[in-house]
């Protein structure tokens, strides 16, 4: 899996050059707006809700002794919870509603890499949107199920917070990479096949998603550029993986034929 993560990271080196070479920036205008508006809306909501959640959690502690310590822990836990859930919601909202815009961009990159005569499954904008919503609702549910128990590790002093932070980052990276890869996979595989494909290539998904998550740490610019750069990198990477899988299948068929 380490090799896959490194491969996922490496493909980002081609992104900016490929976007400019193929003149793709104009296709990212609406997804950039979706990304910015979603980030601002979730950020403002989280800011207003964080104190209330912390105080509500602190009320669980019924004793006066240790109340201040528990209140501090509750504030930290609520802040981490809001940040984690906010990032999860942001990620899946922009990926789902950007699908009709990102899928054609992914297709243009694939045609450049494979040639204009390359064939694949044709899908409409509506199908791309429905597929994007379905994939991201599925991933949102799984990610939330994983995130909540991971956050509980913060209750373990010192080491718990470090382990929780690493696991949260890797979990969010995996599902970010999953969404980016699916813009290409939707032209080749049905829903279930795509899920299985990403599971087999989880290292590449994590590698792509790691840069996605790090981009969000860059104020303003990060949330604007995160989709164009990460989707371009994921497309290059996914096309290569599809080629490798095709060669593997053909090799197995040739071997069976020889036997």
TrEMBL record:
Parts of the chain that traverse the membrane: 27-49, 69-90, 144-175, 210-236
Predominant localisation class: membrane
One Pfam family from the record: EI24
Membrane topology: Multi-pass membrane protein
Subcellular location: Membrane
Example of a GO MF term: high-affinity sulfate:proton symporter activity
The keyword Hydrolase is assigned to this record: no
Key words, A-Z: Amino-acid biosynthesis, Cell inner membrane, Cell membrane, Membrane, Sulfate transport, Transmembrane, Transmembrane helix, Transport
GO annotation terms (biological process): cysteine biosynthetic process; sulfate assimilation
InterPro entries cross-referenced by the UniProt entry: CysZ-like, CysZ/EI24
GO-annotated cellular components: plasma membrane
Superkingdom to which the source organism belongs: Bacteria
Entry protein name: Coproporphyrinogen III oxidase
Organism: Dokdonia sinensis
């Amino acid at each position: 899996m380490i090799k896959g993560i490194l491969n996922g990271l490496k493909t980002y080196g081609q992104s900016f050059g490929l976007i400019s070479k193929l003149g793709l920036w104009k296709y990212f205008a609406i997804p950039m707006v979706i990304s910015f508006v979603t980030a601002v809306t979730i950020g403002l909501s989280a800011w207003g809700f964080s104190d209330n959640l912390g105080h509500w959690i602190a009320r669980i502690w019924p004793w006066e002794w240790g109340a201040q310590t528990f209140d501090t822990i509750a504030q930290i836990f609520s802040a981490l919870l809001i940040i984690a859930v906010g990032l999860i919601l942001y990620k899946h909202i922009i990926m789902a509603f950007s699908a009709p815009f990102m899928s054609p961009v992914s297709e243009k990159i694939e045609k450049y890499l494979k040639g204009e005569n390359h064939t694949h499954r044709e899908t409409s904008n509506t199908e791309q949107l429905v597929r994007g919503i379905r994939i991201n609702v599925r991933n949102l549910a799984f990610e939330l199920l994983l995130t909540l128990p991971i956050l509980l590790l913060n209750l373990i002093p010192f080491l718990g917070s470090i382990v929780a932070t690493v696991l949260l980052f890797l979990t969010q990276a995996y599902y970010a990479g999953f969404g980016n890869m699916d813009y290409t996979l939707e032209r080749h595989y049905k829903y279930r096949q795509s899920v299985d494909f990403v599971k087999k290539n989880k290292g590449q998904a994590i590698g792509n998603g790691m840069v996605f998550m790090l981009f969000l740490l860059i104020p303003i610019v990060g949330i604007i550029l995160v989709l164009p750069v990460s989707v371009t990198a994921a497309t290059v990477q996914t096309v290569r993986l599809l080629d490798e899988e095709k060669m593997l299948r053909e090799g197995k068929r040739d071997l069976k034929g020889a036997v």
